[in-house]
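Consider the tokenized backbone below.
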């Protein structure tokens, strides 16, 4: 008995030591251990929300996600020439490619973190956790869940919806997939709830009320609910804390930033290595470099693609390994509103041109003279191409506007969403593979 007692004490001290050394106490569900006590006071609640943001920063918006979406958009070149990169640029993904399983599991891991916060924080009785702080933390969890579902929906189309924590493997089995439209509806429902709970203050690296409204504008645009997208974009842009800054510069910590994911020397931005190191994986294609360095098109945005002494093109989105990753920017709100104004049932073409020109003026390029609806929409598409040149936008933009076939030669619409990972179908045979895979 004495030996057993010593062994138990040793194991307990080792576990405590390991936990104390962690930079982040990430709250995760375990298949064999109850999670009911992991969020129980103010400190653990705040830690759980920080863990959800860290999951977004290091997993959901990690380098693999950026690489896959950027390569799909056609303007970025892979320097690796890996088979999976060839599958991506040829729009010929296979369900057994490892990064698909990573995207799927990362998304649901982040959702599960958010679900734990949503379920448990309202039940905490710690007097230090005020109702206002409870509302904020739960609102942030709803926002994170909305963003994660939105990304799962645009990546995979048909996905499962979990609104409560999964504590065992069995909790995840046999849940029917929902169509992409239903996934987007869930994201809107979560953003509505987030907007009710979150405070009005302006914070660039955590969700607040206007952050939720801004993301809702983006989701409405994907749903083709143009009046709603215009209204939400206008709500954010009416606040003087969100404005364009001339000359163009990277947006971190300024009024050009609506939501950014922060990094530090202890938790670096993995995206930096994609563009800047000797082993970098990506570079802008020559056509994109030319656009960015054309004074009438890229203007000040030429800093996003710079030719080095060897004539190679270096992407400038993350100048350091602690640079922020931009999730929502003020420029996007202007271009969302421009597109929504042009596309709504009673088009406001003058307003659409004003918004488009606001971004062009900030970027030091000539103002557009387009006045026909088709020309304005083409101008918005072109502007988004250079404004978000090194951010994972273009593939999704061309898919949602029905332009992927004409621009990219991606003529099979079944390939506009990714296959459900084979490993997930093997683990849960109730899942249906997307058509075409």
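A designed sequence for it:
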């Amino acid at each position: 008995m004495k030996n057993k007692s010593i062994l138990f004490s040793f194991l307990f001290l080792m576990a405590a030591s390991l936990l104390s050394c962690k930079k982040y106490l990430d709250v995760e569900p375990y298949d064999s251990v109850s999670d009911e006590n992991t969020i129980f006071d103010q400190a653990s609640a705040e830690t759980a929300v920080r863990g959800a943001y860290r999951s977004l920063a290091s997993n959901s918006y990690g380098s693999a996600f950026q690489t896959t979406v950027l390569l799909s958009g056609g303007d970025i070149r892979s320097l690796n020439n890996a088979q999976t990169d060839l599958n991506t640029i040829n729009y010929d993904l296979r369900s057994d490619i490892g990064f698909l399983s990573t995207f799927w599991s990362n998304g649901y891991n982040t959702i599960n973190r958010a679900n734990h916060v949503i379920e448990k924080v309202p039940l905490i009785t710690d007097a230090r956790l005020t109702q206002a702080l409870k509302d904020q933390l739960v609102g942030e969890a709803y926002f994170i869940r909305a963003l994660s579902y939105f990304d799962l929906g645009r990546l995979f189309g048909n996905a499962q919806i979990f609104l409560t924590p999964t504590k065992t493997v069995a909790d995840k089995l046999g849940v029917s997939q929902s169509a992409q439209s239903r996934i987007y509806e869930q994201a809107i429902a979560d953003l509505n709830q987030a907007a009710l709970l979150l405070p009005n203050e302006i914070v660039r690296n955590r969700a607040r009320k206007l952050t939720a409204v801004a993301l809702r504008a983006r989701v409405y645009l994907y749903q083709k609910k143009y009046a709603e997208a215009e209204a939400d974009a206008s709500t954010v842009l009416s606040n003087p804390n969100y404005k364009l800054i001339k000359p163009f510069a990277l947006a971190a910590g300024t009024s050009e930033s609506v939501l950014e994911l922060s990094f530090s020397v202890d938790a670096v931005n993995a995206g930096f290595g994609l563009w800047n190191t000797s082993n970098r994986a990506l570079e802008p294609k020559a056509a994109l470099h030319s656009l960015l360095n054309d004074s009438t098109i890229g203007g000040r945005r030429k800093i996003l693609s710079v030719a080095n002494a060897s004539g190679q093109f270096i992407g400038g989105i993350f100048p350091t390994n602690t640079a922020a990753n931009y999730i929502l920017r003020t420029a996007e709100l202007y271009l969302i509103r421009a597109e929504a104004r042009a596309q709504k049932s009673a088009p406001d073409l003058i307003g659409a041109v004003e918004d488009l020109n606001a971004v062009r003026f900030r970027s030091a390029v000539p103002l557009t003279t387009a006045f026909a609806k088709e020309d304005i929409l083409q101008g918005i598409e072109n502007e988004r191409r250079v404004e978000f040149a090194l951010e994972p936008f273009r593939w999704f933009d061309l898919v949602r506007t029905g332009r992927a076939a004409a621009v990219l030669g991606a003529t099979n619409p079944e390939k506009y969403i990714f296959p459900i990972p084979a490993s997930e179908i093997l683990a849960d045979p109730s899942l249906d593979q997307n058509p075409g895979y």
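The beta strands are 76-78, 159-160, 177-178, 257-261, 282-284, 305-307, 313-315, 325-329.
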